[in-house]
Design goal:
385 residues; alpha+beta; 4 domains; 5-stranded mixed beta sheet; two-stranded antiparallel ribbon; 19 strands; extended
Length: 385
């Protein structure tokens, strides 16, 4: 008690029986409760105490965060019309060189970029505790270091499930997104603007001189729009781990479940996978099980020879020994050989072009910029891992 009590604070400072203080209330936080003496219960020989919380909730302590969203203006339509009328669309056709997919992506990207630059921006204040607190907590507290620390314990291993969605951005239901934005605290006008922006969008397909009939879209988010990744992150903010032994890592539409398993008990991990599948069904997201992979990291001296596979919707998930996660090659033995070899191979390819530039007599400034952009960025990518 002498070692523990000095770290705690006593909140009752008045006599509770006669002139003696017999009642104690200790917490690790100073002045978090305000005690009030009340009459004794029944035939008790000491008074009763009412503890009133004096602390402020985390929601009230944190300052609102600022988010920048686009706001449609009546003058934007005329500006965009002038912009597109003076655009040389033949440039995109020549650059695509007959590739209709490349032409479509470049034109859509140009239109989206033009709208993002012309449409005025409005700053929205959102409470941090109400937005992506769970996602932020998962990123800051439960990281790769947590997994490595877990593997250092006895009779433990980890299972990693790399989720792949089928056209995740194209399956978002705008009405469901608007409901989630309201729950997060966004203002009604902004939610209505986003809902209007995502619904009743006309779309046509043009191949050469032929154009298809117009089709009205009311699902998904437009490709090439800067707002789309942010809307997707807000749409999936409630996809969080249900068990403390599991970690869910999200980056755009990439989702990974990490199960920290002790004593061969995979109940929490398997329940997490089932819960994610049910969440996807509720939110109209389709799992691409054929591209979903699982990797098992087991450092035990006597590992299980055959781990029971994971099944999603009756389909077995393929187990792999390595996986490229956000540009980094991860292996089941956590060796960096595969990733290092891949980086060196790619860097050597760029070195060839660097030598060609030097042979052509390019000045040192251009060669230096090429090196920093193409080679140094490749070698230093994810170097903190």
């Amino acid at each position: 008690m002498k070692k523990v009590l000095p770290k705690y604070y006593q909140h009752i400072s008045f006599p509770t029986r006669g002139d003696q203080t017999l009642d104690h209330c200790y917490t690790p936080f100073k002045e978090c409760y305000k005690p009030l003496p009340h009459p004794a219960f029944g035939k008790a020989d000491h008074c009763s105490i009412l503890l009133l919380p004096a602390y402020r909730q985390r929601l009230k302590q944190e300052k609102p965060a600022s988010r920048v969203v686009h706001k449609w203006d009546t003058e934007v339509e005329g500006v965009l019309q002038d912009c597109f009328e003076t655009t040389d669309w033949q440039v995109f056709v020549d650059a695509a060189d007959g590739n209709i997919n490349e032409l479509t992506d470049s034109v859509i990207g140009y239109i989206g970029k033009s709208m993002d630059e012309i449409i005025t921006k409005s700053t929205v204040r959102i409470s941090k505790s109400e937005t992506l607190d769970e996602q932020r907590r998962s990123r800051q507290v439960k990281t790769t270091h947590t997994t490595l620390t877990h593997l250092e314990k006895g009779n433990t291993y980890a299972r990693m499930l790399f989720i792949d969605y089928s056209s995740a951005f194209n399956t978002i239901i705008p009405s469901k997104l608007a409901t989630k934005l309201v729950d997060l605290g966004l203002g009604t006008p902004i939610c209505r603007w986003i809902l209007n922006f995502l619904t009743n969008r006309p779309q046509v397909v043009r191949v050469g001189k032929h154009t298809s009939s117009s089709l009205i879209l009311s699902t998904g988010t437009p490709q090439g729009c800067v707002l789309s990744p942010l809307l997707y992150s807000l749409f999936t903010h409630d996809c969080v781990a249900k068990h403390e032994s599991n970690i869910i890592i999200k980056f755009a539409d990439d989702t990974t479940i990490i199960g920290l398993i002790t004593g061969n008990d995979e109940t929490a991990y398997r329940e997490e996978v089932t819960a994610l599948h049910e969440w996807c069904l509720d939110n109209n997201l389709s799992l691409n099980i054929s591209k979903t992979k699982e990797m098992i990291v087991d450092y035990r001296k006597r590992p299980v020879r055959e781990h029971r596979p994971i099944h999603i919707n009756g389909v077995m998930v393929e187990r792999v020994s390595s996986f490229k996660f956000l540009g980094v090659n991860i292996t089941e033995d956590f060796s960096w050989t595969l990733h290092t070899d891949a980086v060196i191979k790619k860097a050597r390819q760029w070195l060839y072009f660097l030598r060609r530039l030097r042979k052509f007599g390019m000045n040192t400034s251009i060669i230096s910029k090429f090196y920093r952009c193409a080679i140094e960025s490749l070698l230093s990518s994810c170097i903190t891992v």
